[in-house]
Write a structure and sequence with these properties.
It is a single chain. With about 450 residues, the protein is an alpha/beta fold. Helices cover about 30% and strands about 25% of the residues. It has 14 helices and 21 strands. The chain has an eight-stranded parallel beta sheet. Strand 15, helix 8 and strand 16 form a beta-alpha-beta unit. The structure holds zinc ion. Zinc ion (ZN) binds next to loops.
């Protein structure tokens, strides 16, 4: 089966070109001007942009956290991704305490295999570190995983010594770590302080104060100094503050390689949401928290200058009922928000549409860079001969309104509810097959596991 996409403009990181694409089976066979081919089905994409399927390198599907499990498993979560134009996710398979890495991966495969509607790879979040895990890492890196996650806060946080050892081992194996950077001590102390001063922790407007920008900046700075001693690149995930960003610039000036990820929520929403009535405010409780508005332009500026490498969602969804676990104490609220389906349209509308970034940059941040950073390129992240035919037919003019009703997520709410958007994924092809159209998923559960090990 051959398909010829005719009349569209192919977007890549280094330009936009009027090119036709010939797809055979799951792969792109050829691209060129005015291609014709006898037995190919013609897909007329005149006036449309063709993006390489977007990659969401930061998702939490079916994650057990705060005594509950995320509202979206791989079933609904990946339908949301696909509906918005994302054809591959990299989810955080999480090693629970006492588990080997093999057990953690087996557990995540049980959640994802046969359920996922887009392709999926895993990062592995490490919660325990010892000689056995260090030995096991070699096989895992060689066979399937090249990126790992470490937390500097939460129960599974690593101390500085462990951070050093893990980064050293990953360097040895040719793998990389993404790190959640927040200072745990500041957060714990401030949570206690709220309780002491107010008698309870019901007022969600105190939440951002418990996770100040200094907590992020300190952790980013400390991580980068440890990485400098190890002499290895690292990834700062979900950067949310100008203060944290300054630490990154400083390290880069000293010659360090630092990759940075941010998320639409930090570009588009601010901490005033925590002053809404508590039950609504809890819906926006994420970690790191939404910040003061002035951070947004600095993050956008960094994207404009190419100093942030990827935009992911940190999709980690809970329903309003799940969020209500924090009614008597906001620190018991499961933290996280949905955003899988919204990301491409939000970045197009507020980024490209408002002149902050170019379409090429959108392609770089949502597709090309995550593919390169996580060893999926050029099978993913590019529309060139030999690549997977993951194609997003983007209608730059389509006007629509973002509402919870139009979302596939099981969260039941849309953080950007009511936003008028221009631009959307009109058709989404996964390895050559039309799987979603105008926000509706046509084909479910055909996602395939993607290995991205460093071996061979
Ligand atoms: Zn996350």
């Amino acid at each position: 089966m051959k398909r010829l996409f005719k009349g569209g403009t192919v977007v890549s990181g280094d330009g936009m070109r009027k090119l036709d694409l010939l797809v055979k089976g799951e792969k792109i066979l050829a691209s060129g001007e005015d291609l014709s081919f006898q037995d190919a089905e013609i897909v007329d994409v005149t006036g449309k942009l063709l993006f390489p399927g977007f990659i969401d390198a930061h998702t939490h599907m079916a994650l057990e956290v705060s005594g509950t499990v995320t509202a979206d498993g791989f079933d609904t979560g990946t339908k949301a991704e696909l509906a918005g134009g994302t054809t591959c996710i990299i989810d955080f398979a999480t090693q629970y305490k006492g588990e080997t890495l093999a057990q953690a991966l087996e557990n995540w495969h049980r959640k994802a295999d046969g359920e996922s509607s887009c392709d999926y790879a895993f990062h592995l979040a490490l919660s325990e570190w010892n000689d056995e895990i260090s030995r096991e890492l070699e096989r895992v890196v060689r066979e399937e995983i090249s990126s790992f996650k470490l937390y500097m806060t939460y129960d599974n946080r690593v101390d500085d010594e462990t951070m050093y050892e893990v980064l050293s081992r990953l360097k040895e194996l040719g793998a990389i770590a993404g790190v959640h950077c927040e200072n745990h001590g500041i957060i714990s102390a401030r949570l206690k302080e709220v309780l002491k001063n107010k008698g309870d922790r019901k007022d969600v407007s105190d939440y951002p104060w418990t996770r100040p920008k200094e907590a992020e900046a300190e952790a980013v700075g400390r991580l980068l100094k440890i990485a400098r001693c190890v002499d290895t690149p690292v990834i700062v995930v979900h950067l949310s503050t100008a203060a944290g960003y300054r630490e990154i610039l400083r390290a880069r000036e000293a010659g360090q390689t630092v990759y940075v990820e941010t998320c639409p929520q930090y570009l588009l929403m601010d901490e005033s949401r925590y002053s809404l009535p508590a039950e609504e405010a809890r819906l926006y409780m994420i970690a790191p928290p939404l910040r003061k508005k002035k951070n947004q332009e600095i993050l956008w500026q960094a994207l404009r200058e190419g100093r942030i490498q990827t935009i992911s969602t940190d999709h980690c969804s809970f329903t309003k009922e799940q969020k209500d676990a924090g009614a008597q104490d906001f620190s018991r609220t499961p933290c996280g928000m949905p955003g899988a389906q919204e990301r491409p349209a939000l970045i197009w509308h507020f980024g490209v549409g408002e002149g902050r970034i170019t379409p090429e940059q959108m392609c770089i941040y949502l597709s090309e860079n995550p593919a390169k950073l996580y060893r999926l390129y050029p099978w993913k992240g590019a529309l060139i001969p030999g690549s997977d035919a993951d194609i997003v037919v983007w209608d730059p003019e389509a006007e629509w309104t973002m509402t919870a009703d139009s979302m596939q997520s099981a969260a039941g709410y849309c953080p950007m509810e009511g936003t008028q958007i221009r631009g959307r994924a009109e058709q989404v092809y996964l390895r050559g097959e039309l799987v979603a159209e105008n926000g509706k998923v046509l084909v479910e559960k055909t996602g395939r596991y993607v290995r991205h090990g460093a071996g061979e």
